[in-house]
Design goal:
This protein is α/β, with parallel strands linked by helices and 323 residues long. It is built from 16 helices and eight strands. A hairpin with a 6-residue loop joins β3 and β4.
Length: 323
């Protein structure tokens, strides 16, 4: 399974922040194994938000010398990828779960970067799907050539928007094909319920939006600070079971609702992927025995989120709830 986070606007849709939030909460809620990575040129927002900023050049070189996309591509050139080879190029984000971050490329030559990403990365990510239930990519915004290919191949597309009408109108006018794509789920990050353009009003205004294909991630000062300091892992470990009246309760509650919606969409996509071709049921049944999506469909919530979910749903914080 492959899911792509994408936005039509640079820096407006909280794309990377949304990806980290959704993946972190899902890692605590479900047993699903995940690999996350990004395709941005000379930008390391995903890595720095998850792990902290590497300030010196030496620190950066040491960090990426034996890991990340560059190392994985070198391994790929030498022969078939193995599960262990992929894991060795990644950083674990949760000790109790197979939740890995594959750092992005450090190639400083734009021409070489684009060529490598275009010719090799898609193949590498396809191979990685055999080792994880879910591969999640933080793609370049807009009509980037690589991003378009990733969107075409994605099983689920997470479109990241703001509550700014200009951004939403731009998406509706210039990306009509995505606005009606059944694979799309719309995410509103940095969400402010008190805004005139809250989710209920946006659903009334734009036919493409409805309750099942939209989710919100509320603005949260604590989370924004964690992103800046590279302490998102610690933030979620401290707050994943935040209770009523606690500072980050509303953020966690609404994020959990959104994650559940996304998980349901991913599960349906996996079921669809498993559906047999009309004219070749016998061959499909044979291939199904080795299909990775079987593992995905067997996943169940962990014991810990049962308690957390019970404490996070059906209650109202000081800001109320979002339907």
């Amino acid at each position: 399974m492959k899911a792509v986070f994408w936005s039509n606007g640079h820096g407006q849709g909280k794309q990377t922040a949304n990806l980290i939030a959704v993946c972190q909460i899902m890692a605590h809620m479900y047993e699903t194994t995940m690999l996350i990575t990004q395709t941005h040129y000379t930008q390391n927002d995903l890595e720095e938000a998850a792990l902290g900023r590497l300030r010196s050049r030496q620190q950066r070189e040491e960090f990426y010398q034996d890991g990340g996309i560059d190392a994985l591509l070198r391994t790929f050139k030498q022969g078939p990828l193995t599960e262990n080879a992929v894991a060795e190029c990644c950083i674990s984000l949760l000790e109790s779960r197979k939740f890995h971050l594959l750092p992005g490329s450090q190639n400083g030559n734009r021409i070489t970067f684009d060529e490598i990403m275009d010719t090799m990365l898609l193949s590498v990510l396809d191979k990685a799907e055999a080792f994880y239930d879910l591969v999640i990519i933080d793609a370049n915004p807009g009509r980037n050539e690589l991003s378009q290919k990733l969107l075409e191949q994605a099983d689920v597309i997470l479109v990241n928007l703001s509550q700014n009408r200009g951004m939403i109108d731009d998406f509706m006018e210039n990306y009509k094909e995505l606005s009606i794509d059944k694979r799309v789920f719309f995410l509103f990050g940095g969400y402010i319920q008190e805004s005139k353009y809250n989710r209920n009003n946006l659903i009334r205004r734009y036919p493409a939006f409805h309750r099942k294909n939209t989710g919100v991630i509320p603005f949260c000062t604590g989370y924004m600070d964690a992103l800046s300091s590279g302490e998102t892992k610690d933030f979620f470990e401290r707050n994943v079971e935040a209770g009523h009246g606690e500072e980050n309760f509303w953020f966690i509650q609404e994020l959990t609702k959104t994650a559940k919606k996304i998980y349901r969409i991913l599960t349906k996509a996996a079921e669809k992927k498993e559906s047999p071709p009309e004219d070749n049921t016998e061959q499909w049944n044979e291939a199904k025995q080795e299909a990775r999506s079987e593992v995905w469909l067997d996943r169940k919530p962990t014991e810990k989120p049962d308690a957390g979910e019970a404490g996070m749903t059906g209650r109202k914080g000081s800001h109320g709830t979002v339907d």
